[in-house]
Amino acid sequence: MTTRFKVLGFKIDSVKMLIYIILTVGALISIFPFIWMILTSFKSYGEVATGAFFPSKLRWINYVNAWKSQPFGRYFLNTIFVAVTTTALLLVTSGLAAYAFARIDFWGRDTVFLLFLATMMIPGEVTLIPNFLIIKKLGWYNTYTAQIVPFIASPFYIFLLRQFFKTIPQELHDAAILDGCSHLCFLWKIVVPLSKAAIVTVAMLGFIGSWDAFLWPLIVTSKPEVRPIQVGLRSFLVEAGTQTQELMAAATFTIAPIVVLYFLTQKQFTEGIMTSGLKG
Questions:
Q1: Residue 26 pLDDT > 50
Q2: Nearest partner of 165 among 197, 201, 191, judged by Cα
Q3: ∠ CA 118-157-137 to the nearest 5 degrees?
Q4: pLDDT digit string, tens, across residues 215-232
């Protein structure tokens, strides 16, 4: 028998209480690095060096110095342009490919799809040099194109959308075909409206991935005019020593847009993750 506790007027059994405690501890552990980052962004260099957890006072000057140390305004514009363009193209390619694998019966479909998924097992580091040589050969070095084109298609996002598209009843497709609706018409008018949660999930994951990109932009760019914000954070790592307080200040205003975007799309994001794998 489970023991019941009364918390804030609600009766909760011991199993649920244990689950709540574990989840609360896990949430606190997950959020601790962000708390430390924000607190450090207000410290002085001496407080960082001595390991003080709380700053003696809020030093907003760290944010001013961090913003002025590098052209972060330009970095933000570059990142927004690359992330939005990549996400938009990613939705187009992933949506079309996912629909083909989910609703169109063509020869070798399942085999092609399995081979397509197999590419996910190839580590990204293995393809860095070949991809870089291709970028150089095409003359895309130090361009936005080099940061966008390699990421406008992804097997994972195609798989995610395909799983969701397969949950749409076949009867809807049959009725649309009888009404003279083509595949593109059915995709746009029926599938897309019914798959908003999955589409928001793919858009969110793709946008975050593009926003957080560091290694690839670092390799294919050398000019601040085209570099994204994550590469800009590297400027705080200097031979004289890292200005940790300014680095944390820059990291704080770097992740702020992503945090706001997540809270705005949290419901659709969670729903998309929960429902995209219901049908294989």
A1: yes
A2: 191
A3: 70
A4: 999 999 988 889 999 888
CA 125 to chain centre: 19
Q: What is the reported pTM?
A: 0.83
Give 38's contacts (C-beta < 8 A, 6+ positions apart). Answer: 248, 252
Give the separation between CA 242 and CA 233, rounded to whole angstroms. Answer: 11
Domains of the chain by start residue, with CATH: 4-59 (no CATH), 62-275 (1.10.3720.10)
Question: Can you read off the two tokens belonging to residue 60?
Answer: 């907003």
| Contact (CB, 8 A) for 160 and 182 | no
Q: Alpha helices of the chain — where are they, by DSSP H?
A: 14-40, 45-50, 61-69, 72-103, 109-118, 128-138, 144-148, 155-165, 170-178, 183-186, 192-194, 196-211, 215-220, 229-232, 244-264, 266-275
